[in-house]
Give the backbone structure.
Amino acid sequence: MGAEKGKKRKAETTEASNKRLKSTAQHVVKDRKECPYLSLINRTELNFDRENKCSQTLQTTNTYMCLVCGEIFHGRSKTTPAYVHALQNEHYVFADMLTGQIWCLPDMYEVLDDSLADIQHNLNLFYTKHQIEACLRTPITGHRLLSRTEFQVGYVGLNAIQQSNYINSVLQAMLHVDDMVRHYMLPFAYKKEASRSALRDSVGHLFKKVWNPHNYVGQVSPRLLLEQVEKESQGRFKGSEFGDPQRLMHFLLGALNEAERKASGKAKSRRSTVIEQCFQGRMVQTSTEYRVSGGMGGEGRAPLSTASSEHNFFTLPVPLPERPLSREESERNKVAQEHLQVLLQKYNGRQETLKGTSRDCIKGTKYIISKLPKYLVLFFERNIRLEDGVVKKNQSIVKTPVAALDLRDLCTDAEAARYSNAEYDLLSTVVYEGGEGGKTGYRTYQRCKQKNVWLELEDLLVMQSDAQRVSILPAYIQVWERRGTLVGDRNGPLYTKATNEAIASFLPPSERVQLRLLCSTLTGVMDSWSADVEMEVEADVD
């Protein structure tokens, strides 16, 4: 009896399972390599910068983009907006916004076709180390927009959202720092979910979009990053209001540095972040109190006390010469001019800046750099605040060499001895060319190292410029790249230690040690096979 009941129960279970399978047969996914509706796909309607939100229900999960009209809808099963849209409009091909899978609705099968690889790449931007290095090292040709216009990967326009011109100018300068490109284009690894940073993720997403070789329209929207910047800054920097690029860049470097430390899981660790590796330098400040007679210009000056301190910096302020005083109108209208090398003598350790502290006491301060950063950021002090609160711009011309700016005279002897040479090449410059009050007219001039040309970028505008023009522009922010290497250093590996650690975090523990040993071994022989690597990179990208 027991055996018969068991057989009967098993038969009933099998029959019930078969019924469930038949009832859900229409939902069973079958992969197909051929789809009769691929000709309906209209790439000119696809906007991968739009917000991932259903146009009907406003839901942000389980969303699909219609590859015919570019609209985003929720769901894939019956009664969902995507399913209904497919039936009503005869738009049958959809892309999963999360995974990049291509689906045919209402037939419910996944489409597998190599011709859709560019769409899937735009939905889920992923790059290998070789692809990143190819973008940075070689003038990649053959990449064209949908309009068939050829473009250089990494040098595209940014959409101006209301008054975000000042934000775009800063982003363009930061988007072309090689070490940041290598770091932010690789997948992020978080040791703890609580350490996840929305600002860090949005910066990485923007890097991936700007350096995307499959860009359709030659422009990118920084909307996600603008939203995070406004949130992280508690409304100090908005795309809807005019702002100061120098304050914004100072905030971004600090906020990203803090996010990188939290992401590493060791907020108090001595290991430097990618921001510190790129921009952080050290400076010695020596302050002396003097007792004077006859005012600050008096000859009698006796030192009272001297104190020295050393601190880190991300940016260096550069004082500008004031307009020359003259009774002649022609002389008053002249714009002051000075060479950058002269203005930087403030940091040579000998030039003293005096400031009155009381009627008979003054304070003299000297500065000298004890550690040069790999990328030097200069802030030119152009804002002049008048007595009535109005801010005017100092239009002084700073004559700037676009290459080989030697800073050895600004370093301590120990720091100067560490480098084979301490020369810097100009990488980018943010220029103010607007009206009073700092409300309009910021643009970035960027050196395209792949083609050795200068490009002018202002929001969506991308056009070629020349080095002679860049050298006399009224710079507001400049980013310089050090060309010198440490004495005894063999140029180091292709990627920084932080990047190698990020890659290692994706590997099993048993393989991480092997990767670190491999990176260490390759450091000594990098120069001998760098040419072979570049050939392999080009082949991999093609």
Notes: DSSP finds 17 helices and 23 strands in the chain. Confidence is low (pLDDT under 50) at residues 20-29, 488-513, 520-542.
